[in-house]
Amino acid sequence: xxxxxxxxxxxxxxxxxxxxxxxxxxxxxxxxxxxxxxxxxxxxxxxxxxxxxxxxxxxxxxxxxxxxxxxxxxxxxxxxxxxxxxxxxxxxxxxxxxxxxxxxxxxxxxxxxxxxxxxxxxxxxxxxxxxxxxxxxxxxxxxxxxxxxxxxxxxxxxxxxxxxxxxxxxxxxxxxxxxxxxxxxxxxxxxxxxxxxxxxxxxxxxxxxxxxxxxxxxxxxxxxxxxxxxxxxxxxxxxxxxxxxxxxxxxxxxxxxxxxxxxxxxxxxxxxxxxxxx
Length: 278
Description:
Strand content: under 5%
Distance between the termini: 41 Å
Number of helices: 11
Order of helices and strands: HHHHHHHHHHH
Oligomer: single chain
Radius of gyration: 23 Å
């Protein structure tokens, strides 16, 4: 009787879990399906190689926006990934309990929850106004600030998973602490660190609010990093809020491309994490 009751309860709970999982997946696949249906029909070769057309004109593309997004994400990665990893190494390997490490962890947690538009306003005030113009550099800097706390937390957790016995073995062989971290600890946690970095890159790839205050946008190719540059999220926002049907179709196509970029990065990160687990 008790066995039957346990099996009955187990089946009920499994049913509840399955229903809850399906409910959680409905919004995800609903959004993806809606974007694919509306965006796929507007995708063509012209979309990837041409510049935007005039207001309301049919055709054109978002080549400059795609390249601009990649450029700013690259700038953000060059700033955010090294800073985040080095900060995590300091917090994990050199200073775990002092007031400074506690303050850094608290600041990291706060920054993780701050709306991205606040970051955009801060960079606009501190950088854009001082420079006197919008630029790709300001946009990349804003995105890097969003990336840094995410990378710090993920890298710190990965480093904590490395057994202390591995570090002690290095010290026992007479290897300095710096070389032990560089040659033993980091390679051991490398896949997890890369996974966290790629998830952070995917996170900032779709940011729009901070770029409105920093990169602004550009209908043409940017000639340098020190001038306004097009970005896919900003272009999608401008087209989606316009009164032109042709731009609405372009916005759906841009949304599909942006989601595809984020999904690919997440899949790569998941694959790296699975390889690490195996």
